[in-house]
Amino acid sequence: MRVLTYLAKRLAFVIPQLVGIILVSFLLVKSIPGDPAVLMLGPTATPDAIAGLRQSLGLDQPLYMQFFIYLKNLLHGDLGTSWQTTRPVLDDLIQRFPATLELVTLSLLLAIIVGVTLGVYAARRPNGWIARLSDAYGLSAGALPDFWFALVLIFVFYTVLHWAPAPLGRIDMVVIPPMPITGAYTIDALLAGDLEAFWSALSHLALPVLTLGLLNAGPILKMTQATMEKMLDSDFSRYEVLSGVPQRLVVRHALRNSLPSVVTIISVLYGYLIGGAVLVEIVFSWGGAGQYAVQGVLNSDIYPVLGFVLFSAIFSLIVYIVVDLIYVLLDPRISN
Amino acid sequence: MLAAIHLLGRLALIRPRFAAGYLIVLTVTILAILAPLIAPYSPTEADSANFLQPPSAAHLFGTDNVGMDIFSRAIYAPRIDLTIAVLGTLLSALLGGSIGALAGYYSTGHGIRVWLSFAVMRAADVIQAFPVFVFAIALVASLGQSIQTVVLAIAFVNAPIYLRLMRSQVLSIRSMRYVEASQVNGLSDFQTIVRHVIPNAMAPVLAQLSINVGWGILLTAALSFVGAGVRAPTPEWGSMIAMGFQNVVTGQWWPSMFPGVMLAITVFGFSLVGASIEALADPAKRRQLLSDARQRDRKKAAVEQPSLERI
Amino acid sequence: MSKFTATLEKELDARVATPAAPLVAIKQLSVEFPGSTETKQVLKGLSLSVQPGEIVGLVGESGAGKTTLARSILGVPPAPGRISGGEVVFEGRNILDLPEPELRKLRGRRLSVVVPNPRAELNPTATIGKQIAAMARIHLGVSRKEAMRMAFAMLRDVQIPDPERRMNAYPHELSGGMAQRVVIAMALICSPAFIISDDATSGLDVTVQAQILSLLERLAADNDSAMLFITRDIGITAHFCSRVAVLYAGEIMELAPREDLFLRPAHPYTLMLLAAFSHSPKLRDAWSVPETGRRETSAKGCSYAGRCPLAQEVCRERPPPLAEISPGHFARCHFPVVDR
User: Fold this and answer.
1) Cβ within 8 Å of B, A 66-95
2) How does residue C13 score in pLDDT terms, banded at 50, 70 and 90?
3) Who contacts C114 (Cβ-Cβ below 8 Å, separation ≥6)?
4) What is the pLDDT of residues C204-239, one digit of tens each?
5) Which of B187, C60, C205, C321 is most buried per CB count within 10 Å?
6) Do A181 and A70 lie in a common domain?
């Protein structure tokens, strides 16, 4: 019951924001010069044909009508059609979003492993060399452009060492992708028992995940380090030391108490990465949702852009709700 | 002003990495200004006979796939990148900061102003909920691709940061007594903000400015990388990296690597400068810094002769 | 300090520290706190010993170094403190010399501390039962089940109301008095030989205070544990301490058997403390607290000289030694108050 009232409150707050986001992106994308009808029919089209297509696309309606039509269609699950792929945007996104999600989720896992590990060790010795290393790492990771770092990795691991496959998509061209169930190739391949596809998908994931994971570990590292320092310095950690609790356990309990802030930063990063992975998707020809949106912007194809913005906003919303529920599990003081 | 420079100088000595930050920013700025004097070749003219030459004495960083000299282009690039980033950041601070100051000033009380201030904050929520890059690229696409629109895009996506920053500063300073006193003294709202609130909010805004110039450079390069920002042959780091993209895959690393390294170092420098201003603005960190400085002075006095190697 | 007084001091300290084979002997313990401008001496060569089964009281105002002492005995002074000298001899070994893993095994097992303000000292994300049981699991190596059983028995022993429910409660769900009982349970579950009670009743209601005190006393007696009872309330020590030490600015000012201290206090500071609790207006007027702002501790003289109504020139020039003014009764004063 409490969960339901919580969800209701959350939605009451979020739905106006969602409409705002759709409105802003609608106006923004609408103001991109270029007539989709002209672009779709090509330079040889007759004016009559263009006018006909404009009418069937609803482009002859006033702007606010177009927005309401879009909203109305949205409620029926219709996100419009992309003129580039000539498919419904919903279908396109359902196909591409898992690709982005798989990439982003694995990258986030790497960032968590790197960030939390370094953060904990740095906090244990605030003036030690790991702390200094983490400091330098945090500052420089944020300064590296991800699309360039991806190129460096491609050069080293593909061009020179030949360890990684060519940066051309999610799986080898000669390997047949597994039947889509979740949309994530690695999981689908395992579900189908297709080890060849699994390894191929995994090896294609390696470099992009390394890029995004290493460059985005900074915020997690900083938050873990700061919170852990505070927790290890707190009364209860000192009392544990005083009571002869082994250091390993003191650190573990401190980490347990640091989790709420670490989870917060992770959730923010998760939402950010959905859109923030765009450039890496482009470098590796990933065919994910972000790349789809950028293609849309560059070709006056508005519905993919709107669909992507909507998808990532809803995804962030889900992440935040899940995090709020995790808090309740993590901190006994909240559940009461 | 002089005191501030003196303080920064001392700060640089105590924390070498801050010194490195100022050095990087200074060097890049000088490179940008003196590029026509330093560059051995034109940054936009191609020598089609000498394309994709590896680094050599003649071409320090090699040449790209149409035969342009990468070194010349790489040191011309900050002229574009820095200008765009600095202008965009200043514009975003001006835009966001002034709206934020007003929103903070009118966030309590009654009437239309309170509603406006509320609406402004919700609008900031909406903007910040967007995926930054897609938002910026859509802005550039809808306004027409040019250097000015990249500046506007940077200004627009960063404005909410200053909006929130100024608003919270105004809110906290507003409640202090001297602002109330100045209201009693009959200063207008505008005078109150200008005279008391803005000077106090300066330090965190400055730190944010420096960090944001770094981000601005990254965003400019990213937009140019996907072809939505500055177009070749105008020398710009992001588009240079994009031009060399295919060459990297086939083994010619130099067209992309050098501009990338310069880009990363520059952004790094601006974040260091931002961190140093942040450290000075934070009372606790400043105390630590100053005590370190005193200790340093004492040590120096004890040794009498400052050893040069240690700097 | 002249060579003579230095030797004398050492000799006297040795006598204070070792009347007969003590359980715990603190010898010349010094702790310093590095600051941004200067290093502050919080404990200045403090010596004190506790016999097996004995309860020794230690009285001092805030800032005298009470908590620093309590924690430094176990080798973990409060940050950023540092033990700069001295020994803590426990069962014949200087435990401050032990390697950390071995010292850790003593903490909470053979020597344990009951801390004040326990709600902040407990891990907010673990249940009470788990935290008490963890002590037994870590130090006694018993099974999880056995540890939980012991924790439950201990909670009953400290007379917490409704122990079944408290086992699964979190620290924020406890009152201050209950949390204090939990911390006592944690300190005593391994039956330590030596208990340090660090101002364990501060911040509690007076009625609860009395309950906790008698509980501590009874449990220590049942266990045959010795105890260092640190408090800022000199009145409490009168009830159950066999000897009482008075701490001021990191030094023991007076140390005496209970009767001597309360009936024949010798140090002006002790008199001031007693006067503050006294019902006699005469005593209160004579020994009322002078302006406390002046608490400068000169490097040279007696650290109490700045506040002392009896201070003379010599008090600001030369530090007084801790002198034995009658058998077992020591006072650090050039002009001890005698024959009152």
Assistant:
1) none
2) low
3) C180, C183, C184, C187, C195, C196, C197, C198, C200, C216
4) 778 888 888 888 888 888 888 899 999 988 888 888
5) C60
6) no
Are B287 and C36 an interchain contact pair (Cβ–Cβ within 8 Å)?
A: yes
State both tokens at B277: 């201003």
Q: What is the pLDDT of residues A51-94, one digit of tens each?
A: 887 777 777 788 888 888 888 888 888 888 888 888 999 999 99
Tell me the shortest Cα–Cα distance from C81 to chain B, in angstroms.
18
Least CB-CB distance to A297: which of B141, B250, B253? B141
Q: Is residue A195, in this structure, part of any structural domain at all? A: yes
| Chain B residues in contact with C36 (beta carbon < 8 A) | 287, 291
Structure confidence at residue C202 (pLDDT): 76
Interface test with B, best of A13, A148, A153, A320 (most B CBs within 10 A): A148
Amino acid symbol at C77: P
The DSSP call for residue C245 is E
> What's the CA gap between A39 and A54, in Å, rounded?
11
- Domain tally, chain A: 2
pLDDT at res. C199: 85
B287 shares contact with chain C (CB less than 8 Å): yes
Across the interface, do A244 and C109 touch by the CB < 8 Å criterion? yes
Mean pLDDT of chain A: 86
Q: Which of A17, A28, A159 sits opposite B125 (nearest CB)?
A: A17
Residue A63 lies in a domain: yes
A175 and A146 fall within a common domain? yes
Q: How far is B53 from chain A (nearest CA, A)?
A: 17
Q: Are residues A144 and A45 in the same domain?
A: no
Q: Residues A34, A322: contact at Cβ < 8 Å? A: no
Same domain, A194 and A56: no
CATH number, domain containing residue A185: 1.10.3720.10
Convert the pLDDT of each residue in B17-69 to its tens digit: 788 888 999 999 998 898 888 878 888 777 777 777 888 887 788 888 787 88
- For residue C283, the model assigns a pLDDT of 65
Nearest to B7 by CA among B300, B296, B293, B304: B293
Chain A residues within 8 A of B250 when measuring between CB atoms:
159
Six-digit token pair at A254?
């401190």
Residue-wise pLDDT for B180-199, tens only, equals 666 666 666 667 767 776 77
Indicate whether A67 and A96 sit together in one domain. Answer: no
Which residues in chain B have their CB less than 8 angstroms from residue A278's CB? Answer: 131, 133-134
Residue of B nearest to A152 (CA): B257
**What pLDDT score was predicted for residue B86?**
94
CB contact under 8 A, B129 and A316: yes
How far off is chain A from C334, nearest CA to CA, in Å?
Answer: 38
Reported as a single tens digit per residue, the pLDDT across B217-242 is: 999 999 999 888 888 788 999 999 98
Residue A109 predicted with pLDDT over 90: yes
**Residue A198 placed within a domain:** yes
Q: Give the residue among A215, A218, A221, A203 at the shortest CA–CA distance from A152.
A: A215
pLDDT at residue number B83: 92
**Residue A239 distance to chain B (closest CA, Å):** 26
Find the angle CA(B285)-CA(B291)-CA(B292) to the nearest 5 degrees.
90
Residues of C in Cβ contact (< 8 Å) with A255: none
* Interchain CB distance below 8 Å, A257 and C139: no
Q: At residue A160, does pLDDT exceed 50?
A: yes
Is A129 inside a domain boundary? Answer: yes
Which range marks the domain in which residue A229 is found?
A: 92-291
Over residues B252-266, the mean pLDDT reads: 90
Q: What pLDDT is attached to residue B304?
A: 40
Residues of C in contact with B291 (CB under 8 A): 36-37
Angle (CA) B166 B223 B246, round 5°: 150
Q: Are residues A186 and A243 in the same domain?
A: yes
Regarding beta strands C39-50 and C194-198, do their DSSP bridges make them parallel or antiparallel, or are they unpaired? unpaired
The two structure tokens encoding residue B55: 């680094």
Same-domain pairing of A117 and A259: yes
What is the distance in angstroms between the Cα of A298 and the nearest Cα belonging to chain B? 7
CA angle in degrees (0–180, nearest 5) for C148-C150-C153? 110
Question: Which pLDDT score, from 0 to 100, does residue B84 have?
Answer: 93
